[in-house]
Amino acid sequence: MRRLFAQLIDDPVELDWFCATVVTEAWHHQHDEGRELAELVAERKAQFPGYDRAIDAYATRFIETIPGNVPGTHEIVRELAGMGVPLFAITNFASPFWREYRAGEPLFDLFGDIVVSGDEKIAKPDARIFALAARRFGHPPGAMLFIDDNPPNIDAARALGWQVHHFRDAATLRADLTARGLLG
Questions:
Q1: What are the boundaries of the signal sequence (predicted)?
Q2: How many independent structural domains does the chain possess?
Q3: Does 184 map to a domain?
């Protein structure tokens, strides 16, 4: 999120404070869990007067917080789809932000189903979202590979019997998928 707020707050010390105190990951996670955006924004603006413009930007310019695609990952997804590997996703994303992001990202057309935390009102690493995903995807956890960059999400999936890959970069993922026989 820092990417957006750096455009609005010039002072690096103030920017650090804002990102650590006002628009935090924990606060944002509440929106991923389905809490209403208007409620979150109003509450934060009341708690931190003088930062209305920056807090409003979270609501109106969220897509600008996303740094872009990780190099090499889209190619991997296309290769998997081309080989007939069923693709599914579990994403922590607030519903309105997901709809906006999804509209501009055709790669997700390759996925059979996507569980969106904001729609379900539960977010990773909550075990309930993994159980819901397994039901919707139609496969037992042990038959699926969960790929994520967040260690608590990886730990939760592993504890529930999912195969896991802690994502760090596309090259390491490609090597793991090749070793698993999913890529040639």
A1: none
A2: 2
A3: no
